[in-house]
Design goal:
This protein has 468 residues and is an alpha+beta fold. The strands form four sheets. Strands 1, 2, 3, 4, 5 and 6 form a six-stranded antiparallel beta sheet that branches. A three-stranded antiparallel beta sheet has the order 7-12-13. Helix content is 45%, strand content 13%. Helix 7 packs antiparallel against helix 8 and helix 10 runs antiparallel to helix 11.
């Protein structure tokens, strides 16, 4: 039987509806007059001054933000993780505060200064943990500089195919500068960084907690994965091989756990099962690693993309600051050395014309990005911002050329995994062949368990409407 193209998995819609229901209940508690008065008082406790306007709440992917303006013209914001969307609110918030303080102290990136952060116990009307921070003035983000004109805000952005070359280079140059400053910092293990004593004046930073990623959050929110199936809160990783194997195991756990919208039919289920077994085999054998670990593990942010980089459109979209650092952690060099997947704004698995066309368009833009990155490296090295050893451009070119880009992407994106694996990973490692050839590569246990696994998933699909 020939190997077919992989198919996307989709978020579990039943689980998504459950998240929306939690949000609706929570918004009722947030938007009443008593809560808003308490929120105003709380912000003013930690940002002295006379306030003159409380702006309506603004919802992001994982957080709700409320801004309070003061008569001196500056503003402060309070930000709450959204129940049902942020699965690990206290953990996420603590790690974000730590990494923001680290970046504020050790880079030139404009980070919102944290004025205070509190637990659920300190929260007005039990709304959950919160951060109070300065508001960075801006009137745009870098998506606005790159997006195709006419695409509504609620739709997925796509890089303007007719974008002005100077604007594209300016944005790529600025984003490259951010990546260089984040990635110059190395750590001895893979995981989230924190102060040894959670002290903003302490400059000793350690890796003592698991690498919390967007994918982990989504696996529990809309993938049916239980919290107990994730790495433990204090579990860190000493090698890229161990971490990639943990991610490969999570891919299989995800397929086994998601009840709704996971498979189309029996053959699709077999393809998804085989792909995960083979990816796990590659991880177990250490064949997914290529970058080495001699210089430690580098700081990496899952969510560092144009949408989270604030800008001013009146001055050519110059960067004002960068926000949303909750999914930053010390990561394998394979992740750090991969060129960014946001160069076209849209991800490969959602590209309307398919992955081959995405790759064709991406490659032309990658050349521009790497040119700008090399120029930025030269400037930053002359200024002493980074050292020669902190260059990324050569590693990113190698990652793209050797296929490491696709391995890292597949490892970090559970719902995109099948499309990427069958289109860009399988043949690279295992050569030409049929599906029967691939089945022969599985362990005896995996082969013997496949049909029972397929029948269970078909039964779950037939039942439908449940959240595991």
């Amino acid at each position: 039987m020939p190997i077919m193209k992989g198919k996307l998995m989709f978020f579990d819609e039943v689980a998504w509806d459950k998240s929306d229901a939690q949000l609706a209940t929570w918004k009722t508690a947030l938007l009443n007059e008593e809560s808003l008065k308490k929120i105003t008082t709380l912000i003013k406790t930690h940002r002295q001054g006379v306030s003159d306007h409380l702006f309506p709440p603004q919802k992001g992917s994982f957080n709700m933000v409320i801004r309070l303006r003061f008569i001196d013209g500056a503003s402060a914001i309070i930000r709450f993780p959204i129940p049902g969307y942020s699965i690990f609110p206290d953990e996420k918030l603590r790690h974000e505060v730590s990494v923001m303080r680290f970046l504020e102290r050790h880079t030139g990136i404009r980070i919102p200064h944290v004025l205070y952060h509190g637990s659920s116990d300190e929260s007005p009307n039990h709304l959950g943990p919160f951060i109070i921070m300065e508001y960075i003035d801006h009137n745009a983000d870098l998506v606005d500089a790159l997006n195709t004109p006419g695409i509504p805000d609620e739709e997925r952005p796509v890089l303007d195919p007719n974008i002005d070359e100077d604007r594209l280079r300016s944005v790529y140059n600025q984003m490259g500068g951010l990546l260089l400053q984040v990635a110059k910092h190395s750590f001895p293990r893979i995981g989230c960084i924190s102060n040894a004593a959670d002290d903003e004046f302490d400059d000793e930073w350690v890796v003592e907690h698991r690498p919390l990623s967007i994918n982990m959050n989504e696996l529990v929110q809309v993938g049916g994965v239980s919290v107990g199936d994730l790495p433990g809160v204090t579990e860190t990783f000493g090698t890229a091989r161990a971490y990639l194997l943990a991610l490969a195991e999570l891919h299989m756990t995800h397929l086994a756990s998601q009840r709704n919208d996971a498979i189309d039919d029996a053959q699709d289920c077999r393809m998804k099962y085989i792909a995960r077994c083979l990816f796990r085999k590659l991880a177990r054998e250490g064949r997914l690693c290529w970058a080495g670990e001699d210089c430690g593990f580098r700081l990496f942010c899952d969510d560092l993309r144009p949408a989270n980089v604030l800008a001013n459109s009146d001055f050519g979209y110059t960067v004002s600051g960068a926000i949303d650092w909750e999914f930053a952690y010390a990561a394998p060099l394979e992740f750090v050395f991969s060129p960014p997947c946001w160069l076209l704004l849209e991800r490969p698995e959602y590209w309307e014309e398919g992955i081959d066309d995405w790759e064709r368009v991406y490659e032309s833009r990658l050349e521009v990005f790497l040119q700008e990155l090399r120029m930025r490296e030269d400037v930053d090295i002359r200024r002493g911002v980074i050292g020669e050893e902190n260059r990324l451009s050569g590693h990113m070119r190698e990652s793209w050329d050797n296929g490491g880009f696709w391995v890292s992407y597949a490892a970090r994106r559970s719902w995109a995994f099948d499309i990427i694996y069958w289109a860009r990973i399988d043949q690279r490692f295992f050569g030409e062949g049929s599906l029967e050839d691939r089945i022969e590569l599985l362990t005896v246990e995996e082969r013997n368990g496949m049909e029972a696994f397929v029948q269970r998933k078909l039964s779950e699909k037939e039942e439908g409407g449940l959240v595991s």
